[in-house]
Design a protein that fits this description.
Blueprint lengths: L2 H14 L2 H13 L6 H13 L3 H10 L5 H13 L3 H9 L7 H14 L2 H14 L5 H13 L3 H10 L5 H13 L3 H13 L6 H8 L8 H13 L6 H11 L4 H10 L5 H13 L3 H14 L6 H14 L2 H13 L6 H13 L3 H10 L5 H13 L3 H13 L6 H14 L2 H13 L7 H13 L3 H10 L6 H13 L3 H14 L5 H12 L3 H14 L7 E6 L2 E6 L8 H20 L1
Length: 585
Amino acid sequence: MPHERFISLLHQCSKSKDFLRGIHIHSTLVKNGMLSNLLISNHLINVYAKCGKVDNAKKVFDEMPHRNLVSWSALLSGYVQAGEPLLAIDLFSRLKMQPNEFVLSSVISACATLVFSLQGQQVHALSVKLGYSSVSFVSNSLITMYMKSGQSNDALLVFSQASCLNTVSYNAVIAGLVENKLPDKGFEVFKQMRKQGFLPDYFTFVGLLANCTSSNYSQIGMELHCEMIKFKLDRTTFIGNTLVTMYSKFDMIEAKKAFMMIEEKDIISWNTLITAYSSFDNHAMALSIFVRMIGFENLEPDAFTYSAALAACVGLSSVRQGKEIHAYLLRMEIAQDIGVGNALINMYAKCGFVEYAYTVFCQMGCRDIVTWNSIIAGLGYHGFVGKSLELFEKMKRIGLQPDSITFLGVLAACNHAGFVNEGRDYFNSMVKMTGIAPSVEHISCLIDLLARAGKINEAVDYVERFSFGDNPIVLGSLLSACRLHDDVLIGERLGGKLMKVEHGSTSPFALLSNLYALDGMWDSVASERKKLKESGLKKEAGYSSIETMGIANKFTINDYSHSRMDEILYMLRILNWEVVGTFVL
């Protein structure tokens, strides 16, 4: 068979990424002693590189008696595509020939992946010296590299000096500006792109939509959606999934419409919809979508699907449905992913079945920081404080560094049990030993712990020391503690401060009113209630929910609209009679 035929076959293998066929051709070439041909060896490197088999590509490269720039370029590009940027940079450092535009583009991409801005600048200087900096794919790689390094001005300078801009150039700038928190500039570049006559593609819109998840940019997101409809891109899986994600932040109806418009829904489409419903607190619908997916769609759920469904069970406080998902995982003999295991621990703990959560924890072969955080917080919340703190110490002994979430779980456990000294020590060690800056959640746990123990002055001292004196959550916790310990003097001062920082809440009025009532200061109680009435604010009605037969029932104060309210009231009367009867006896 002539050399040209083998070259053609190898070219086809690289295009189709047919690794097995490539191996067969490779063995034939070895048998026929044809690997000495430079052109054939280069094509063989390219086949292995395109298939992600860089070890095979490197072996062919090392065994070549002679190499040219194409040999180096093929392997270097393969390293970058296979996610081995360090190997690409190392190979480039050993190149003795003058690089061409393909080599430079690949090594710049490697620098971008690693955010090696200094090395990237050096390659940029070399590309300018050799006259390749204005070549489109070199300049595009430079734009991406500078954007990923947070040097957006340098990226824009490369963009402005590029001699041959294309859609990829604009996409790199738009995505980079959005990632660097400069969305308005990104939209300006998009308008410039349209004026220049370039047609946007999938990547253009995905880059822009990444910033349209907040209400401030929702209108722009909808305008971009209209543009996508014009180009018939909204029905594609890639764009459709991005649209569902965008709308799920502010309009669930439009999110569902975007989902329905996707012609070929993949696992990401369904996962996105499940998560979207949960983000709108419609956990029942999220689970309904999950059931439909595994029952009627020809799709295999992944770890993210199960985690999202278990999160929905937490939202409904439905341990029954959580157990069903757990049983399904065991029945199908699905290898337990760490993320799924963490979701199971979280579900059982938050639904009140902490012993099941601990069983899942013990059965997990691999654990990460989230695993430990989940079980420590779960045990502490349900009163197993000793076990929670024991696991915290064990976690440190095995060399796992606790993070801010770990300490939050530990502080909450100490707060739950009233371990004042231990809680104070853990908080101080978090700040001094690990260097973790306390968040409002950390300081709230500590001051609640101290204040419940009557150490209100010490709690105030911690608040002032860490500059949380204007935080409404912290002030509210302190004011609640003042009410608990009947400390009107500090309570009045904190109440006045809380009213200044939290204008639209009824909490300051209610807390102060209750504080005055405990001290018998009825004139002050009347004054606070009058202020509340004049403010026009209304306290949000409290409610509770309970799951029966897989359905969550919500009960709000003074709301008798439940379909079975007559039965409920009848049963309450019976229970009340039995309680009264018990006391009489």
